[in-house]
Structure formats: C-alpha cells, structure tokens
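Q: I'm building a small set of examples for a reading group on sequence design. Run inverse folding on the following structure and report the sequence directly after it, with nothing in between.
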C-alpha cells in the first residue's frame, strides 16, 4: 500500500517504514543536528565573552607616565560594554612648555546605538579643555571594529575614514582614507591614504605592524614600523578597551608585551625612533596586578 497513513476511527496510524527508510531518517536527523550545532557556535550572540572585566586600576601599568596614579575608573552597561573611563592626563602649561598632569576630571564617554558607538574625550577641569575630535565606530557581528570615522572640527570638508579587515579573529589591516574636497585629477591634488598591516605569532600576540603612506594607492614616503616584544603569559586586562586609543594595540593580543619599538622613516631614510619597556608586577597566578 503506497499511502503513508491509514485513517481509522478518526485517528491516523503510520505505516512502519522499511529498514532503508529508517537509515535515511537517522542520517537526516544527525545532519540537521550537526548544522544546528555549527550555527550556534558561529553565532556571535552565543559566544561567551571571557575577557576580564576591569572596573578600576589603582595604577595604570601600561602608561609609562602613570607614576602613582590613583583610581582609574571603568564603567560598563548591562551588556558589559565599556561606557565610560574616568581619569586621564592633561597638558598643563609651564614656563618652558607643557607637563602631563593626571586628573579625575578627564573622562571618555562611549555611547552605543545598535552597532554604532560614539567615543568622545571630555574634561571638566579648569586647567585644560579637551578639544579632540570624537570618533564614530561601526562594529561587526563579532563586536569588533568594522569602520571608524573621525570628523575634522576645523575643516568640515576633510574627514578621516578607516576600514578594518580581519582574518579569523585577528585584525590584519586598517585602511585609512583622508577625503579632500579637491579633485584627485589635478596634479598634486590626490586623496591621501594610509595602510597599516598587522602580524601575529603562534600565540595570537601582535608582533609587528607596518604603517605606509600611499598616494592614490601607491606607496609613497612615510613608513612606520611598530614592534611588540617580550610577551608575558598573563591574561590581558585591556581586551575590553579596544575603543580607547591608548589601549588599542594592547587589546589585540592574548598576553601583554613588555617592549615596544617604533621606527619612522621617509623615503627609506630614518626619521625618528622610540623604544619603551615595562616592568609589571604579577600575582601568584602569573597575572598582572592592577589594583
């Protein structure tokens, strides 16, 4: 009988399937289960965020100028997204220039609207007025930066835009475009762009970036090579701080670099170089002490 069901007294009874049909049904169910499992694993909403949730740094070990800085405060929303950093440095004029002074009156505000984030640095201090451009970020489905826009408060016709490119979970390139109202067709009136490429070791620690200036897509002039060395095995406390410029490079790695070198050159000729080293204090588990 070809019918799948037999009607009897208003009930439906299924004909028993053959051994071949049973095997087919089991195969379909197993395949569906595998697909469902993969979908859940790939859905960023189902991925647990195991990154450290730092609410206070008694001393900022990552800032070489921090000295005895007290109580750098980090606030989060109900989704554990950073919404405010309180405390920072301002430049105070002195007789021979400026000095960096820490104050709790400086803060960074992060405002979220779906996948858009506005990051602004503000000051309530009478000693200094922060006059930096805000940054407008767009995040991807993995809560990583996809784009960044930086308007120019002195010239509304010039705007900096960045695109962030990833390979797996690692950022591999940032492309920067500086828009100009002038036409790139005229000699010298080009759209200036930059490209920064990122390189990692087998432990997912950032080891080098190469920042190149380009004129109409052609490498030209300025080059900056940044190297990150002497990594520890501590958890990285800055993973959630990727929207704060001072922690951005650190946030990209699994662990913490203790040596940083920056070499700038123009047309292959050395222009400037910087080297910094850090000595961290660790607890009994080998993790950086920040409180």
């Amino acid at each position: 009988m070809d019918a799948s069901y037999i009607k009897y007294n208003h009930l439906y009874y299924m004909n028993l399937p053959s051994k071949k049909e049973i095997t087919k049904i089991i195969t379909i169910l197993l395949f569906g289960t595998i697909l469902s499992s993969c979908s859940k694993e790939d859905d960023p909403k189902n991925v647990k965020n195991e990154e450290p949730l730092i609410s206070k740094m008694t001393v900022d070990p990552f800032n070489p100028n921090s000295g005895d800085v007290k109580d750098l405060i980090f606030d989060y929303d109900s989704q554990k997204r950073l919404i405010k950093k309180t405390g920072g440095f301002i430049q105070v004029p002195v007789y021979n220039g400026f000095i960096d002074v820490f104050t709790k009156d400086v803060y960074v505000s992060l405002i979220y609207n779906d996948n858009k984030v506005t990051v602004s640095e503000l000051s309530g201090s009478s000693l200094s007025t922060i006059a930096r451009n805000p940054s407008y970020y767009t995040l991807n489905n993995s809560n990583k930066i996809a784009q960044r826009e930086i308007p120019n408060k002195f010239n509304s016709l010039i705007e900096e835009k960045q695109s962030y490119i990833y390979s797996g979970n690692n950022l591999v390139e940032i492309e920067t475009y500086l828009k100009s109202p002038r036409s790139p067709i005229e000699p010298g009136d080009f759209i200036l762009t930059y490209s920064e490429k990122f390189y990692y070791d087998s432990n997912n620690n950032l080891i080098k970036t190469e920042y190149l200036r380009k004129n109409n897509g052609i490498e030209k002039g300025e080059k900056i090579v940044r190297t990150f060395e002497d990594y520890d095995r501590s958890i990285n406390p800055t993973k959630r701080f990727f929207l704060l410029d001072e922690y951005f490079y650190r946030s990209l790695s699994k662990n913490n670099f203790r040596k940083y070198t920056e070499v700038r050159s123009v047309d292959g000729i050395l222009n400037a170089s910087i080297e910094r080293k850090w000595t961290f204090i660790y607890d009994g588990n080998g993790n950086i002490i920040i409180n």
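DSSP finds two helices and 16 strands in the chain.
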